[in-house]
Amino acid sequence: MDRVRAAVLGGTGLVGQRFIQLLDGHPFIEVTHITGRSSVGRLYGEAVDWRVEVSIPEWAREIKVSPSDPELLAREGVEVAFSALPASIAADIEVGLAKRGIDVASNARPMRMDPDVPLLNGEVNHSHVKLVKLQRETRGWKGVILKNPNCSTAILTLYLKPLLDEYGLERVMVTTLQAISGAGLRGLPAMYMVDNLVPYISGEEWKIENESRKILGSLAGDEVEHLDLEITSTATRVPVIDGHTEVVYAKLSRRPEDIGEVARVLGGFRSAPQEWSLPTAPEKPLVVRDGEDRPQPRLDRLEGDGMSVVVGRLSLIDSRDGPWLRSVILGHNTIRGAAGAAILAYEVYRAYQDKGLL
Amino acid sequence: MDRVRAAVLGGTGLVGQRFIQLLDGHPFIEVTHITGRSSVGRLYGEAVDWRVEVSIPEWAREIKVSPSDPELLAREGVEVAFSALPASIAADIEVGLAKRGIDVASNARPMRMDPDVPLLNGEVNHSHVKLVKLQRETRGWKGVILKNPNCSTAILTLYLKPLLDEYGLERVMVTTLQAISGAGLRGLPAMYMVDNLVPYISGEEWKIENESRKILGSLAGDEVEHLDLEITSTATRVPVIDGHTEVVYAKLSRRPEDIGEVARVLGGFRSAPQEWSLPTAPEKPLVVRDGEDRPQPRLDRLEGDGMSVVVGRLSLIDSRDGPWLRSVILGHNTIRGAAGAAILAYEVYRAYQDKGLL
Amino acid sequence: MDRVRAAVLGGTGLVGQRFIQLLDGHPFIEVTHITGRSSVGRLYGEAVDWRVEVSIPEWAREIKVSPSDPELLAREGVEVAFSALPASIAADIEVGLAKRGIDVASNARPMRMDPDVPLLNGEVNHSHVKLVKLQRETRGWKGVILKNPNCSTAILTLYLKPLLDEYGLERVMVTTLQAISGAGLRGLPAMYMVDNLVPYISGEEWKIENESRKILGSLAGDEVEHLDLEITSTATRVPVIDGHTEVVYAKLSRRPEDIGEVARVLGGFRSAPQEWSLPTAPEKPLVVRDGEDRPQPRLDRLEGDGMSVVVGRLSLIDSRDGPWLRSVILGHNTIRGAAGAAILAYEVYRAYQDKGLL
Amino acid sequence: MDRVRAAVLGGTGLVGQRFIQLLDGHPFIEVTHITGRSSVGRLYGEAVDWRVEVSIPEWAREIKVSPSDPELLAREGVEVAFSALPASIAADIEVGLAKRGIDVASNARPMRMDPDVPLLNGEVNHSHVKLVKLQRETRGWKGVILKNPNCSTAILTLYLKPLLDEYGLERVMVTTLQAISGAGLRGLPAMYMVDNLVPYISGEEWKIENESRKILGSLAGDEVEHLDLEITSTATRVPVIDGHTEVVYAKLSRRPEDIGEVARVLGGFRSAPQEWSLPTAPEKPLVVRDGEDRPQPRLDRLEGDGMSVVVGRLSLIDSRDGPWLRSVILGHNTIRGAAGAAILAYEVYRAYQDKGLL
Question: Given CB atoms, is A326 within the 8 Å cutoff of chain B?
Fold first, then answer.
């Protein structure tokens, strides 16, 4: 396969940095451009306040930061753009790229809920990529726009998918304990995060509740029918660098035999990205951890190179109103919840093309 | 009122230190003894690794640490003992004291669920203090043993009580984010609490679920009938010094008019400790905080000198199966959740005596 | 004494909040105005993101935030202004106030090193307040401008003063471990302060080295002769909310008998603010702590209501080039190092006036 | 080269875990045994509370934990033992091993200062390995005992070595800001490390001052002549997981031309481990970092896979008494400062043997 020329949009932020890290050594994607705003014209290695725990790749250091200008990127032969742009400017730029034939895999919020935009969480709803047919028809763009979900949603829906398929879901109540990196490099003051936590994240709960219903929905013809599932969420911020923890209470339609069976269903979950060995797909999407005090962010967030969700504290509650499953799940918010999910979405799209499924 | 001679048992630990802090300047209690184990014979000011944010009271510095010996304490005229003893040794010592006529107000776990032991959370169930009649009859002790609940339970039930009275409770699902001090001075290694959280606390969930049902139960004759309420809880530990946060989903029997009404019901809650102006009772047991990002441990834990529970993020969810109330609540775990609750329990007991209600 | 009408300039920031806290209940100062920028017109209680560990005083909640407008403040009868203004705008506003007859006690950097501006650290150099005579002559203002030093400098010079007087100082090498609050409410991202420290604070080392020489200098006629002392400093930021720790190596001119003598010299240090019982002066400016692992920020920063400096780890090093004294010192950066120092500076000024010393 | 059968002694602790991580994939060392105390008989994967940020190697999971019994290890063909034993039991076991012909590379404190025991910091004093000749003569053991220095010392001396060689050292004053992992998995309570720091580490300053003089000393015949250098140190503990930061003031005998020259001297430092391409030797022992706010633990500790020391904030101070160099240095305490240094010491020993230098 020829190497695809890629741009990372908004490459100096925390999600942009993860794109650079994850695309380092990718088998068929080559980053040729990195865009920014205030750092345009400087070498990436000098412009970025690199916060990833491993060193910045040498090739990335030497790339000169470009403006996020669709015309320019098209002219210079960029074929795909991975977007970590701020929500306020993402839509215009991403549409401009798609019009010019550049495919976009974007972590930015705008357009996620548009009916003709695939909101992709690789293993969960790869078939939703077929929405691009509707997108092409109605928009008339030469490129496509693919979106990955909000970080907490990506982690949650990966866990919920096998439960939905095996037992049915009636209701979900979730409390998140989210990492600081989710707020960006300068989004959260240190004064808030020493000897403290903040039980609120603006806009987060709406996204968890609504994006999940789209992702877990089923493709019917050209449309995704959102899942009719009641989800209630409370989002909190805790003093952790990377890794969102979520305490999930899920009411099931059918009672599992026992917790061992649930563990097998979760741990055995595989999907198209695994079958097709997509480069960014983890071997095990869900890892069920035994220790009674797991998952823990510092210890478990890099499972599956940050693309797996780790599950622990499984417990079956036989309530008067039916069986509930309690668990604590953990995923890497800027990998599985952002940059990794976007790259996997693009890999799914390419696989569908290669297999003639689109 | 004559000053009552008091001992603080296990006075060098974190809860013991809070007893000393809270009893400093108490109108009718005077600490004459502080007990310990490895520090016996040393001055308290030298033996204690004082971790309270205000200075150790001068009078306390000069007290020589005694052994937790019922015989000795009785001989030296101690009338009440506030116990912060470890669970493993508490029962024997506390029973020894009661037998010798010393009243005990104890934060230690053993005997909390005994049918003849009042498990008191001042404002919530002060009338349960009448169990001491049964206790005296069946045990034949001259003193009484009063218990306060587990820290998370004390905070949770104070919040639930007015909801139960006004709307009825059908189901409670709670996730706690608990402070480090709850594990004691050396209970939790620093390696676990930097860039991390631990989603498990041994024994905590059982206590929350079972103690709450006793506290919220009703006195029928000589017995407390536990409340028939389904409670599910998940306890996590986060890098916060003091202050337990709890995310509470409560299914109500009756739908409130709107969230403003709920706020008024909670904020207006008063009980006997307020009516009788007990020294340790806060003016407002529940403080409803407006800011969308509150309560926060560092900012709200000292509300009402640490005896109030702060409530925020109230939200009404009209679910298919009935109305749910979502909230985030916060209380000081070693004050309202431990030492303060024990002192208030003893004040309730004295008030009942003074008013001839026992 | 009649109560003086005071304004707190820049009252919503962290130092502004400390001014409000410390002036609550002041015997002769009454806060009538609080100024701000984006919050003008709103009630202070609603505008401020209050981060002090005790509640905001009721009277302060109800003050409507004014602009930092000298004309307006003069018209409304303000007599003294306590300034927590950002350096970029402080000079213009403070001069405007002084011209209109309003005295200014300011924590802002500009003008600190001006020869006619007293840079006051109460106990260390109260007599420098006499520079106001020169200031009045050369500037022709009706009011005066008093400055307090940079936070680290205030803590350091308070410790060095009795050593200088008793033993003489030849060289000082200091490493600071500074708290987050020193960077302001939003000055430092949380991403930098979890599992990390930053060994650099912009401009800090210059201030420590130069301001110290002015403060420790002696008044000769109308001028302060800066102390000819070599000071080298390295400033680091650590994950602590309040309380700057400083590791100080000081080369002495004369060798102390032993470390006990040094402890007595430091612990016995008193100065005019103590003799005159100024309201904000701590009983003991320097507290020598015994424990081998002290001072610690969370335990010692509120000593003397945050106005004392706590000293520990005293050790005498008999080096080839003379006697060095090693110590670790700690002070509250927004109280002794900012708001408290400014208030004390004004109290010194008033005392000098009242005693006819000016 | 045949693979050497190795045991990791005390393998479940933090340093033991680093041994396992670093020996994973080693070209000529194969771990066949892991020893412990309370975990004897269990599989390592189940016994260990694994705290390294990457996953535990599969081969290590399946090793059954043995007792630290020299007889047993000798019988089962162990050839080298890497020791992370507690100081209290290390000496007996390590001597027992050496008597039975097993070489020991040990991180444990005892015997470090013995004149016939090489205290090795690979690049700094590899030739000291020749002390084993004296050791063999005087002790009559078939195996040898090699020691690596205390963590802070390993980092410090690696930085000082090229300065000593190029400019001469007259005096060193250092303040350390040490990571939590240096105290072991359960050595430091979380209550001490949230919103706090501790300015004391038991025994650490003595080790820094004395071990450094031995390491920087020169081999004269069969003995190491300790360097006659005044070192003063203050050790503090800060809320960082891994990575010791040290603020170093070094008085030089000769003034460098400028700071650029110093940077070249440090950055260009190479030694035998680099020339011989020893497996655990980093390409660059010292990395001079440009950013004014570097080094930072979270960002720089994994430089050179944790074996490099990162240097920043270089500044030349022309003092009256001569030229001082100020810097902030950072090294990974459980890699360069412990397990990595021990493995490198053994690699040095083997290289000396292979080259016929012993």
Answer: yes
